[in-house]
Every structure is written in C-alpha cells, then in structure tokens.
Here is the input.
Amino acid sequence: MDSPYTLRPLQIVKRAFFGSWPVWPGTWYYQVKAGIIMNLENTQVQMRKGILEFCVLQIISRGEVYASDLMDELTNARIIVVEGTLYPLLARLKNAGLLEHKWVESPYGPPRKYYRLTDKGVKFLSALTSTWEELVRSTELILSRSKKPA
Here is the structure.
C-alpha cells in the first residue's frame, strides 16, 4: 500500500482543475498526497532561477560580456531561455552597483552594451561562490545518505 507521501506521476491529458489549481495537458504532475499535486517543471524552473544571479555574475567575471553572448551561454547551459528574465536582472545588478557597462560601436549595427563587474561585484561574487560551494557540499552529503531508488 502506498504511503500518503508517495510520489505518483500524473500525466494530464486535458486542461482541468485540481482543487483550485489549473493543470495543463502534456505536463507531468506528481501527487504528493491526497489532494496535493506538484508540477515538476515549475520546481525545476524555480531551482534554475535561484542560481541565475550567481551564474550571470560568474560569466561576467571572466571579462567584458555582451548581453547576447551571456544569453547564449545561459541558454546552452539550460539555465535561462528567455530574454525577459536576463535584462531586468542585469539592470538590477547594475543599480545595486555590482555591474557597470560601456557602449562599444559595432560595425554590424547599433552600439553594443558590454557588462563587467565592479569591485563591489567582485566581492559580492566571492561571497556567493563561498555560499555555492557550501550548498554543493551540503547537497552532496544529503544525496550520499539518501536511499537509492530500487
């Protein structure tokens, strides 16, 4: 008999509501217990968003970066897939004094904006890197102690 907390995959084949929550066709949901379902894709997106700022700062720390190149790297790494997320983040980081930009004339069209870290950004990234390394160690410890699925 299943525990009330056993994850049971549910493939939704038509749009419906589960309680007051809309569910969408073709999306995998997991029933956590009676009356509670979780959308796997939403959780994965939230995990990626949680590390986006760190990844952006890490990429920019290598040297001046054009936003389009930054977007390409994040997309290839499956961290981000929409511009509407990147540009507001860059503006927020610039307003916080972690980034600065400069305009560079382009032979292919309008001038391009290149980003780089400020001294404050370098210090901030150093602190984030320490936090990231601690989170990786903690997660690996938890995963190493978890039961392997049969």
The first strand starts at residue 8 and ends at 11. The CA atoms of residues 7 and 32 lie 5 Å apart. Strands lie at 8-11, 16-18, 21-23, 28-33, 36-39, 65-66, 99-106, 109-117.
